Model the fold of this input.
Amino acid sequence: MAIGVPAAVIGLCVIGAIVGGSSRRSSLTASNSKDNGNKFGLIRQIEAHNGHVRALAFSPDGKFLLSGGEDRVIRLWDVASGDRLKEFKAHEGNVNALKFFSDGNRFLSASDDRTIRVWRTASPKPISQFDGHTAEVLCIALSSDGGKLVSGGKDKTVRLWDVDNRRQLASVPLPDSTFIESIALSPDAHFALCSPGFWHVTR
Done:
């Protein structure tokens, strides 16, 4: 661990399952409370990364958690035990966004290195990569069938990708906007919603 760089902490809370990232360094703790009969409280803290945690994602079955941050590393965790299961290293910049595919065996990551990468949880190396953004990629969203991907970032573009064929389908420039920091894709993959606007992306 680099001297002077705090370890980022993931806190697991009970309500179903809610996760928050912080930049404090802290030991594992366990607690909970009751409010109107509903349990809500911190049950575990995990020292996860050097620097800030920037991205978190649950697996579809809720058993696993991905985390990524300023140390450029992606880590896979067992939610029940808090154990770290695997590390994934390839990005050359902050990891800003993570998203599981519905099969739970693959996931996407987006980074300051301007790339989006596809991984298998069983392998430490990415299986494919999307290039095209000219600045940091800040957000991604995936269609329910895993076939379409939308992304946004500091180059002020929204991009649509064909995941299976590993190619870009469209790019919408938003030159008068701020950075694209959040994005969502409708379940039918017909519409993308991003921080500056609403776009019809496919027919």
